[in-house]
Amino acid sequence: MTAHDLRSQLASLTTEAFRPELADIDRLPTLDIARLMNGEDAGVPAAVAGQLPRISAAIDAVAARMSRGGRLIYAGAGTAGRLGVLDASECPPTFNTDPAQVVGLIAGGPAAMVSSVEGAEDSDELARADLDALKLTPEDSVVGVSASGRTPYAVGAVEHARAQGALTIGLACNEHSALAAAAEHGIEIVVGPELITGSTRLKAGTAQKLVLNMLSTITMIRLGKTYGNLMVDVRASNAKLRARSRRIVALATGAQDAEIERALTESGGEVKTAILVLLAGVDGPAADRLLEDSGGHLRAALARASG
């Protein structure tokens, strides 16, 4: 593609549109710019709301595959790639997932998290190589993320994953995008032109973050990683999380501190097991067996224990 062709393509994208009414924004008082920016951001949730049926269908498809051992894999470049890596990296401490269960791929590799890697986003071959290194299976789900919906790395990742039989989701911020068209589940959150022309780390980035939050969080709810709205699979890897673990057990059971300490000790610090020990009146090994027989779902394990 020539420079002229690329320029014409970018000019046609909503996310790249120039807004003449903001041409003097740099002359405004700081508070007025902040109000403008806040007003722009306020419209993002409504744009996401318009795509909720598509988002929920994608989540159900991902959860079904992950329940059979599949992985959730994000692939993107620049801001989109960083958001995927961020979401993936927060799943182990929040939901006690294996680090290999939710994976973020960014064009250019880990170095691209903190600095630009020239040309990486333009390479669909790089996307194929990154996915091949993960040894994709049909149980895996690959989410291509790109504000423009045309980034070769994201589109290439989705096309390659679909050819391998994996579930594919394309998350873009422009209508009629190549990325959404390439995926089994196309999600297009159209947030409109940015406050700063083409700076898609703004509204588009916010929209992508909201959708990725939904994809991972609701998938984990479907997989039994929560009990109500409590993070019962939280990994207590520091003092704050150990305190949170005790509080979660208290909220779920109403037990006193001494009982909570006993149950956590008996369950090796596993919150979900400790709750089952207290609510079902079983010992740690029995609680572990109940959870294993229930696929890790605490409510199902409680029903087994009482039935």
What can you tell me about this protein's structure?
There is one protein chain. The chain is of the alpha/beta class and 307 residues long. It contains 14 helices and five strands. Strands 2-1-3-4-5 form a five-stranded parallel β-sheet, with helices on both faces. Strand 1, helix 5 and strand 2 form a beta-alpha-beta unit. The longest helix has 20 residues, at 203-222. The radius of gyration is 22 Å and the shape is globular. The relative contact order is 0.12. The model has no long low-confidence stretch (mean pLDDT 92).
- Overall pLDDT level: 92
Shape: globular
Secondary structure class reads: alpha/beta
Termini gap: 65 Å
Helix content range? 40-55%
Strand order of the largest sheet: 2-1-3-4-5
- The helix tally amounts to 14
Radius of gyration, CA atoms, in whole angstroms = 22 Å
Number of E strands: 5
Beta-strand content estimate: 5-15%
Topology as a string of helices (H) and strands (E): HHHHEHEHEHEHEHHHHHH
Q: How many strands, which pairing sense, and closed or not: the largest β-sheet?
A: 5 strands, parallel
Uncertain spans? none
How does the SSE layout of this entry go?
Layout: H1 3-11, H2 30-42, H3 44-49, H4 52-66, E1 72-76, H5 78-95, E2 102-106, H6 124-134, E3 141-146, H7 152-163, E4 167-172, H8 178-182, E5 185-188, H9 203-222, H10 239-253, H11 257-266, H12 271-280, H13 284-293, H14 298-306
Parallel strand pairs: 1-2, 1-3, 3-4, 4-5
Helix pairs in contact: 4-9, 5-9, 6-7, 10-12, 11-12, 12-13, 12-14, 13-14
